[in-house]
TrEMBL record:
Species assigned in the record: Planotetraspora silvatica
Name of protein: Oxidoreductase
Length: 541
């Protein structure tokens, strides 16, 4: 988008003819640095204002007037006042400048490039609702960057830069890569609601029809990027922030990479990314978060990695509920806080027993495979740590996993642990009956216990009745007594050998005989009850 040729010619004439020639405002005077930029713009020739002595952009206010460039001059060039030369690619390629004022390019359609290197820009760069080619603002010191709803055709490169008062990228669309590696980003200073009202002049308070103003709260968000779409990779490696990252509903179609990033001063959430979609998300290799990492409802078609991450939060450190992820690597080098995996579907979960220092929410969680050094006792401890108490689904899911990989004995142990955990939630009669089922047959998952009890009772009955023989009831027929078959008849709920009705125990052995009869009924009932538990479809899923 070019301005009239006579304006550009007039501006160049200003540079040659001095102050006596009539010139339009606001460019009545161009400094030497501005004149160099103006003349270099048609061909995109680099302009380097660095002196090799004091080039730290954080000290830009000390550089002197020879390196000052007005933001409105840069905006005028980008908005079409600069001439273009056929066969050349126009643009601003500037290094070591101190840009004075706010660079406002909102709502514009910018076809030329803007590359700034090592510049000091204490004001605001605003490209809200603009459409622009790729932007490179490398190793710059910037007051604030606003790019809400912007479309950037190409790369947004902020590598090594410092942005004091945060970045706005809500609902922006970047067709190339988003680079913020080794950058330093602070949260906006001063109160704000939702992290964004201060971006619209006069909208610091909504219209409330004369009611008292609503309280304004400070939200510590360094990068506000809800609804952001990045077609290329989002590389935020080594990022340092004072404030969190807000990526609600963002799409990272070639992955999100936060290795080595340190997120501090987050006031609650280090990463707030509900319903985020990404092909992969790397939050490991030194990634450090002082606050909750929240990815509720996220969809990650590849790997979500916390390998060698440092995670700490006073309450919930990871909120990963209702998520879908192909592979979750939960292998932090240090972690403090609770973890929520409820209602998430995980393809492969790779973890360690020490990955869960606090409570774990697992109700509704499903997974295809478990990897790592955890053994069955570790997994049982894992499913018991729900702060809401007993939940049957985590046990059923773990048992189903062991059955699927052919470990039937481990599956039975898990289901036995489930029944024992359930028993603690029952009233006294239910707990008593459950305890009896557990002792006798292990709730049906240890049927060999019934055989052991029968063997012990048979041995005791046979020994006792061999020494204290019962009296025969009917003397009109001759019968031979066998202590072993007599004991079996007492234990069986229905007489098998017709010994119980033919012989009458004497003395104290009457109590033993009654105990054996009761024990037989209890064993039979327990076997039936336990068998129905084992054969239920819900336990064989």
């Amino acid at each position: 988008m070019n301005g009239p040729a006579w304006i550009s010619g007039l501006i160049r004439q200003v540079g040659r003819s001095g102050p006596d020639v009539a010139r339009p405002r606001p460019f009545r005077h161009l400094t030497a640095a501005e004149r160099r930029i103006w003349e270099a713009y048609p061909t995109g020739t680099p302009v380097d204002l660095r002196d090799g002595k004091n080039d730290d952009p954080a000290e830009g206010h000390t550089w002197g007037r020879g390196r000052e460039v007005r933001a409105e001059v840069l905006a005028a060039l980008l908005l079409g006042m600069g001439e273009e030369e056929p066969g050349q690619v126009p643009g601003i390629r500037l290094a070591g400048a101190h840009v004075v004022g706010d660079l406002n390019l909102s709502d514009a359609a910018i076809t030329s490039r803007l590359h700034l290197l090592g510049c000091s820009i204490p004001g605001i760069i605003s490209i809200n609702d603009a459409r622009t080619r790729g932007l490179r603002l490398r190793r710059c010191h910037i007051g604030r960057l606003r790019a809400g709803r912007a479309t950037i055709d190409g790369l947004l490169d902020l590598d090594g830069s410092t942005i004091e008062n945060g970045i706005r990228l809500d609902n922006a669309h970047i067709t190339g890569q988003f680079r913020l590696s080794d950058a330093v980003v602070g949260a906006p200073s001063g109160p704000s609601r939702g992290g964004g009202n201060d971006d619209l002049p006069g909208w610091s308070q909504p219209y409330n029809q004369g009611r008292a103003p609503e309280p304004v709260t400070q939200v510590a968000v360094a990068v506000w990027a809800g609804g952001l779409t990045v077609e290329g990779g989002a590389f935020l490696r080594g990022l340092r922030t004072t404030g969190g990252l807000r990526f609600i509903g963002a799409h990272f179609n070639s992955g999100l990479y936060l290795e080595g990033a340190i997120l501090g001063g987050t006031d609650g959430h280090a990463v707030y990314a509900d319903h985020m979609q990404a092909t992969s998300a790397e939050l490991g290799s030194g990634f450090t978060a002082s606050g909750t990492v929240r990815l509720r409802g996220a969809r990650i078609s590849g790997v979500l990695s916390f390998d060698r991450a440092v995670l700490k939060a006073p309450g919930r450190v990871l909120h990963l509920s209702h998520m879908q992820v192909d592979e979750l690597l939960l292998l932090p080098s240090s972690i403090e806080g609770d973890i929520n995996l409820a209602y998430s579907h995980i393809g492969v979960l790779f973890d360690r027993p020490d990955s869960y220092p606090g409570h774990v929410h697992l109700n509704g969680t499903t997974y295809e495979s478990l990897r790592g050094p955890a053994v069955l006792t570790d997994r049982l401890s894992w499913v018991r740590r729900d702060p809401d108490g007993y939940r049957p689904q985590p046990y059923e899911q773990l048992a189903a996993y062991y059955r699927r990989i052919g470990h039937e004995s481990e599956a039975r142990r898990v289901l036995l642990a489930k029944q024992r955990a359930r028993r603690r939630t029952l009233k006294f009669p239910g707990r008593l009956w459950g305890r009896l089922l557990d002792i006798v047959v292990g709730y049906g998952y240890r049927p060999w216990l019934a055989g052991l009890w029968v063997t012990l009772l048979l041995a005791a009955g046979t020994s006792v009745f061999s020494h204290w023989r019962p009296h025969q009831i009917g003397l009109d027929e001759s019968r031979s007594f066998n202590a072993f078959t007599y004991t079996i008849d007492l234990l069986a709920p229905v007489s098998v050998f017709e010994q119980r009705g033919a012989w009458e125990p004497v003395g104290w052995t009457q109590w033993l005989a009654n105990c054996l009869i009761v024990a037989g009924w209890v064993l039979a009932t327990a076997l039936i009850a336990g068998g129905t538990r084992v054969l239920r479809p819900s336990n064989t899923s």
